[in-house]
Structures are given as C-alpha cells and as structure tokens.
Amino acid sequence: MKPARLNQVTSYVEQNISGFHSARLENLRKLKLNQVLKRKNPYLFRAKNILMAQDLVKNVLDAHLSSQEETIFGGFLEGLAIFINGKVYRGSKSSAEGIDLEFEKDHKRYIVSIKSGPNWGNSRQINKMREDFRKAKRILRTTKSDIQIVAVNGCCYGRDPNTDKGDYFKYCGQMFWEFISGDSTLYVNLIKPLGHKAKERNDEFVEEYSQLVNRFTLEFSQRFCIDGKIDWQALVRFNSSAEQSKTK
Question: Is residue 193 a contact partner of residue 187, using CB atoms and an 8 Å limit?
Fold first, then answer.
C-alpha cells in the first residue's frame, strides 16, 4: 500500500475506533446480573471449583463481555476492510444477502463474506454462506451473464492453509488483507493505528468494570450465598429451572 493510502487507513481507524470503545462501554453499563448468570453454564463453574463470589462474578462477566466485544469489533473490522478495498479497487458494501463486499479485480467480480476469524461457524452456518454465494451469483449473472464471479470467505485474523473450498475460497489473516488491498504487509501495519487512544479509553472502561464487579458481587452474595458459601443449587435453579424461565 502506498504511503498516502496508509495515511488514509490510519485516519479512518482513528476516526472510527472510538465507536468500538463507546459501544463496549455502553454495553457494560446496560448489563444486569440476571442477564449474565442466565447465559453462562453454572455446571462449568462448579466443576472449576470456584469458591469465591467475586471470582465467579468475574468469570461469568468476562466470558459475557468477551463474546460481545468479538461481535462489536468484528463489525468495525468489516467496515475497515470495505473502506480499504474501496480506496484500492473501488469496492463497496454489497446489497446481496449475506455478502459484505463486492469488487472487481483482474477482470473478475469478487463477492466476499467477511468474518472475524477462521473458526467462525458450524456446518449449518457455512452451508448458509454457500447458499448466499449461490444466490448472489445468480443475481449478478442476470445483469452480466459472461462475468466470472469468485466467492470468497475472508477472515480478518488467523490461518487456513486449505484456501480452495470447492465453490468458494477462504483467505485468512495476511492473505485476506493482501487480497482486498494488494499490500502484503497491511495486516501488520494495522496494529499501530488500532492503539489510538486505547489506554485512556481502556482506563475509563476498567473504572466502570470494577464498579460493576463490586455491585454484582454484593448482589450475588445476597442472593446466592449462605454463610459465605455459594449456594450452587440455588444458582442452578435460577439458571435452569422451568419455573424461572420468565424471570428477568
């Protein structure tokens, strides 16, 4: 990537990374203890012999937040990939279902489904992506029947040495970023701008997170502890009992 284009990428990241931090913080502020306890496996935490209320709260909260952050950041990376490709190959967000990016290169039309990492879905989800590719190809050929259309599953990080999946290609990590930009070093160069104001935004997050852990720990102790011990049966009933299914 030429220096001017790298500057454009840096500018885009610095202008838009705040959206990730803001969404991350907003999600934290909206959380309720019931919400995270109902979505995590109490049997797992019992098997890990967690004895302290604060440790259990941190475990369930961290697992919940990690899943949310992957989703939020995945959306950011998708937008970044489309922006970069637009600058290099004039690609754009696709209007086809399940397709994130369309662009032309070397007299071929590429349709791209962007995911965060290589292990993003089960067989049903992968089959759905294949069907989305088939539908998008049919639609594109109605307007230009002789066009060569190539379907690609692009993953923002990781590796998959088996790139040819038969009816589509899978490019991960360096291969993906080079595919959409023509720059073999872009995947490394992205790291620096992603750290823009990261410390100050994370300090704000940590302060809110610490307060939430303290509040959740107090609430958990009052509801699910007896004489300072976790009442696992009460916790499992809350998480899984049919009678509790409508509890918010």
Answer: no
Q: How many CB atoms lie within 10 A of CB 103?
A: 19
Give burial (CB, 10 Å; 0-12/13-18/19+) of 138.
exposed
Name the nearest CA neighbour of 219 among 23, 31, 26. 31
The mean pLDDT values, 10 residues at a time, for the chain of 248 residues are 73 90 92 93 94 95 91 93 94 94 94 95 96 95 86 97 96 97 94 87 93 97 96 96 65
Buried-exposed string 125-136: b where 16+ CB fall within 10 A, e elsewhere: eeeebbebbeeb
CA distances from 180 to 54, 131, 134, 142, 187 (A): 45, 23, 21, 25, 11
Tokens of 10: 């840096």
Q: How many CB atoms lie within 10 A of CB 93?
A: 14
Please state which CATH number belongs to domain 1-89+197-248. 1.10.3250
Q: What is the pTM of this model?
A: 0.85
Bridge partners of 171?
Answer: 154
* C-beta separation of 50 from 234 below 8 A: no
Residue 177 identity: W
DSSP string, 220-239: HHHHHEETTEE-HHHHHHHH
CATH superfamily to which 91-180 belongs? type ii restriction endonuclease, domain 2 (3.40.1560.10)
Every domain of the chain and the residues it spans:
1-89+197-248, 91-180
